[in-house]
Amino acid sequence: MNHPSYRDRRRATAPPRLPGRARNTRRLSAAAAVAAMLLVGCDTGTPKASPHFSGSGVSLAPSATPSHSRSTFAPALTTAATACTNSSKLAGWSNRRLAMLTIAVPVSETSVSDATSEVSAGAGGVLLFGSKAPSDLGSRLTTLKSHVPGHLGLLVMTDEEGGGIQRMANLVGSLPWPAYMGAHWTPAQIQQNVTKVAKKMAAAQVNMDLAPVVDVDGRNVAPSHTNPDGWRSFSGNTSVVSKAGVAYMNGLRAGGVIPVVKHFPGLGGSTYNSDFGPARTLPWSTLQKVGIPPFTAAIKAGAPAIMVSNNIVPGLGTNPASLSPTAISSELRGKMGFKGLVVTDSLSAKAISAAGFSVPAAAVQALRSGADMVLFDLGSNVSSQTSSIATAITNAVTGGHLSRSRLIDAAGHVLAVRHVNLCS
């Protein structure tokens, strides 16, 4: 806390000079008063108080103050100067609880209570599967969210892209394939229509959409084993995809839903669909010109989350992008400056197992590479799979294969995208 006029006022009203011991006593009283003001200002623990303690408080103690007096004030000032942050709070969590926060648990939208035990254990999100949502989905999800430890909220996500990729159109209304939107709707029309759907999604307690797809792919075909995009892409024109993708993203946000832009660094022109086997994107040198601009546009427009694909990117290494530190940490985080949530595509994909990774091992590698949240498919063993993933992550930290600071960072991104403040 700075007091620029303190000395001037003191000179103007200075009493006759006192003997040395009395002067020291007076100085101690002044220092004690300042320290008291500083400490009182921090009783609320609000972050805004912390800047007042960076050096200036200590410098107000007179140089003639005995050493024992300085040590009396210093501990109190140091304690008050420690600002509360999500990271500082997460540092006190167990590795297991941090690990659970990085997992999205798959569940049928007709039976969301199946994920109750995982949510109670601290899972960061649930991923809804199905094609027709129950009319009371909202109340069911509200009940599920009540089991979140500390009532910190829950990411409830689904794939509501449009066309043939819609999970809850019966509740929220239908959108056409993105290819139709890109060809027939203006960006303003895309945003307007998506907002209508998003508002109904939010009303049903679904707060995250794994969309928009901003892959640049102009092939006029339905998505298939050999082509992951087709009509899921807005266009084969990079500029059209960039504008449509941002419009779709903004439509979701306007409706209260968190968009997840996918599939970085772009699936357009892929050799295969990674869900069914190993797949490669176009060469990195080509993607930088054709596939990356839509992601750059989305980041500039404030994209809160990005999904990374399971395709190998020629020129960026031999692992799928979701398991590649070069793709995530170096390119997406480093060069492109993305600071939001990074989500993997499903680690149950055949491309992941073909690369030699089980789902738990892939989860560890994804986190090491810079991802924050891992996804996997709905199956008969969701509970055991979730437990295996959490165990693999905690063991990796204990064994030194995954840094605890990286795990805390990932957990922090999960909380940040939900606007959770652990210090409030």
Layout of SSEs?
Blueprint: H1 6-12, H2 20-41, H3 56-59, H4 67-81, H5 86-90, H6 95-101, E1 104-108, H7 116-120, E2 125-129, H8 137-145, E3 155-158, E4 160-162, E5 165-166, H9 169-172, H10 178-184, H11 187-203, E6 208-209, H12 238-254, E7 258-259, E8 261-264, H13 284-290, H14 293-300, E9 305-308, H15 325-335, E10 341-346, H16 350-354, H17 359-369, E11 373-375, H18 382-398, H19 404-417
Structural descriptors:
424 residues, alpha/beta, 5-stranded parallel β-sheet, 4-stranded parallel β-sheet, 9% strand
Task: Explain what the structure shows.
This protein starts with 5 loop residues before the first helix and ends in a 7-residue tail after the last helix. The longest helix has 22 residues, at 20-41. Helix 2 packs parallel to helix 4, helix 11 (187-203) runs parallel beside helix 12 (238-254) and helix 17 crosses helix 18. By secondary structure, it is α/β, with parallel strands linked by helices. Mean pLDDT is 86; it is low at 1-80. Helices cover 45% and strands 9% of the residues. Strands 1-2-3-6-7 form a 5-stranded parallel sheet, covered by helices on one side. A 4-stranded parallel sheet has the order 8-9-10-11. It has a two-stranded antiparallel ribbon with strand order 4-5. The protein has helices at residues 6-12, 20-41, 56-59, 67-81, 86-90, 95-101, 116-120, 137-145, 169-172, 178-184, 187-203, 238-254, 284-290, 293-300, 325-335, 350-354, 359-369, 382-398, 404-417; strands at residues 104-108, 125-129, 155-158, 160-162, 165-166, 208-209, 258-259, 261-264, 305-308, 341-346, 373-375. It is built from 19 helices and 11 strands.
